[in-house]
Amino acid sequence: MHNASRDRASDGHCTCDENYVRADCSKYEGACYPTCLYCDGPYDTDCSQCVANASLVELQTGYNMCVCDDDYGSADCSMYTGECPPTCESCTGPSLHQCSSCVPNAYRNGNGDCVCLAEYGKVADCSVYNGPCDPKCDGCTGPSNADCLKCLDTRNNLDYDGQTITAKYGMDSPTYD
User: Fold this and answer.
1) Please, are residues 86 and 95 in contact by the beta-carbon 8 Å criterion?
2) Which of 35, 65, 131, 139 has the most crowded CB, counting CB atoms within 10 A?
3) Would you give the DSSP letter of residue 7?
4) Spatial separation of the C-alpha atoms in residues 24 and 16, rounded to whole Å
5) What is the pLDDT of residues 17-69, one digit of tens each?
6) How far is the C-alpha of 96 from the C-alpha of 115, rounded, in Å?
């Protein structure tokens, strides 16, 4: 492909189009289309290598075009639009190390991955507590006594669920005066 201008310069000589060089105007040195890392011209069909998150597609015309990979968008394919891993609250890609922020009860490990705290690690999104309960609790959703499903009344071996007192171990409920 020759990229010489159709119009002659004022002195009558043919000139290369803007950003094309060499005696025959065959080398392009301008900006590439946003999805192209390397190119032979300024258009989307001039790509020779793609940016990250894009793939080269050979067209029937013999030209190549870079197309954003699945779950990536924007002019340069840099925006991740897919689903984040379950331990990520937001992310820039599908891997654990691409989390922008971790969900509650998760932290970044030495590799930069969002992983569940040990007490929350039995479900993928770190949402269920499975660690030890406060000694005042009979079941819990977290480690503090504010997380009790039921409070224990250890003075009289009674259970108190916030509304009802019931005797444990077959004892009769006490009478209060």
Assistant:
1) no
2) 35
3) E
4) 8
5) 898 888 888 889 999 999 999 999 999 999 999 999 999 999 999 899 999 99
6) 8
